[in-house]
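Q: How would the structure tokens look for this protein?
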Amino acid sequence: MYWERLKRASAKNFLGQSYRPRQRRRGAFAERMKDDPAQQRLDRDLLVASAALGMATTSLLFPPATILAAVSLPLSLFVFVPTFATAYRSLRQERRITNPVLVTTRLGVCVVMNFYGIAALDAFLFSVAQRWNGRSRQAWSQTLDTLFAEQPESEARHYLEQAVGQTTSMEQQAQASANRMAPFMLTAFVVTLPFYGANRAASFLMTGFGAHLQTLGPTTLHEAMRQATEQGIVVKNGRSLEMATLSNVLLLDAKLLLAQANKQALLNALRQQLAAAQEVDTHAIKIIAVGVAQPWLTEAGVDEVIPPAEKTAVLAQLQAAGQRVCYVGDGLTEADIMAQAHLSVSLSGLATAAADAAQVILPDGNLSTLQQFFAGAAHFQRQQALNLSTPIWFDFVDISTTVIAHLGLLYSTLFNYSGLLWRTWGAKRPFFPSGQTPEAAEQFSADQTRQLIESQSAS
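A: Here is the predicted structure in token form.
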């Protein structure tokens, strides 16, 4: 049988897939990336920017080759063509000054003042950051290729691949901050230009005040979702990771606790994780079980038990009172309540991921995996907060040194991109604690493969 052959051939990679199918998947993945226009554009931009920087550096080291600096300028500007288009739309259609307008003005200064080397460096560092983001997207696609090896074109796979494109609330805040500060930075450049000169005044145009999260946000989300999937946690979007750390009421099906060996330890751990993420006392976190009141539920640490018929009404009352409810159920006949909850977690299989109303799916059906999810979500939020705050602090330091010291655009370019690249590297760090043994990972992958095959046969 296929099931036995898969187990015998398994090489126990992180999802337990066999070696030869994985080789075929790599080929399919390479073909997909080869046909991916976005990936081709990132590779092309990095190549063009590298050539521009090489020409500009050569002209600096060998003065007779000055013509190379002029040749590098069109290459540098080519990398920013999408940014120019966005700036044009902001000014022409939206009638407002945004961060792309600052970037366009900054490069205009480089053209007028013959700062060819700075323009090439700017294009190169920008391309590197974008390429790193592209590599995170590649890794996420490759993880989905591994998980959906038997159904590469399944609806669930396409849904998860598209879900990461949704912006989180942190990214929206960062974008609003960047757009709010852009007019002030442009004004600062215009006002200080007669006194500081173009080189020094243009440093104000290098500040983003949150604009970098457009790159850092997707990179961090891709990594978090990829690592979660490898741990057997299917996260549908970034907002579910944000809501996980804000939930102060855990509403769960009592039947899910029956299979847990140490129920009290599990509920205490979940309570402590939610309390720590919100920096509140554990008493502020309430756990409500849906089922028949029994002594063991109270002993396990459940605060309240409600009948199944009342769960929808109780959920509505709690959320109307301002409580943020995380509902945990089996996902079989609970589409309505899962759609209503601020955050919903389903312990159903992966085959129905696209249609499942839950925002998070634990395909292994183990409630203890919820601990890993909450821990990873809290770490994701910390990383996103750093992604927002760190570049802003770099902006403040850059402005201070521009005003106090006689440092110019070259320094600002290196300094600001250092903050971006540092946080991009930080986004690659582990989010979710590894709680799976190789045997558990193999079993998880095998179960999902079987479910997907059965789902395809049934349809």
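The radius of gyration is 26 Å.

Strands lie at 234-235, 249-253, 286-290, 304-306, 325-329, 343-346, 360-361.

Upvote if useful.
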